[in-house]
Here is the input.
Amino acid sequence: MAVHDHSSGRAGVRFPSRSRAATSATSVAARDTTRSTAFAMVLAGVRILTGFVFLWAFLDKTFGWGYATASGKGWVDGGSPTKGFLSGVAAGPLQSTFHSMAGDAWVDWLFMLGLLAIGVAVMSGVALRFAAVAGTVMMALMWAAEWPPAQHLSTGAPSMSSNPLVDYHVLYAAILIALAVGHAGRMWGLGRGWERMAIVRDNRWLS
Here is the structure.
């Protein structure tokens, strides 16, 4: 009985060649770059849309374009952008405070300049940290004015609150913070050039 030696053809452990490993690493890096770019584009899109929300609110309240502000009752026509909202506050512990502020010139100016500054900053991609802080403060005040935790208004009518804690004001604040942390102004915005300015480099809170 003959015994044949096939040792020359036995399988061994094969290691990937350097070229194959390099190609794989390049492919992974390319995928990561593509995903990073796609994420930056999505974040930039969210930034532009969010900024437009604030800018539109400023324009409609200023000129009375017939949406949230009736025609002829805009700020330029002598109307107050805060009187109707603040005087109508009917829930929460700050009702009397908001009522006393309703329609005051300094409140109107502060509110409108805030809308304009946040809208322009976010849409252009500059000063996103400042915009996030200012926007969060504004949203917190508006949340307190509407007071979602209340199930009933001071008149006894249902408040129609759909969530006692998280409403659109909280979401807008969270989005503004995410845009600032994610440096969303670098894609489709002026963020990169803004960050290179000497005054911004010396004062990081402006970035």
Q: What stands out?
A: The chain has a mean pLDDT of 91. Residues 14 and 69 are 73 Å apart (CA to CA). The radius of gyration is 28 Å.
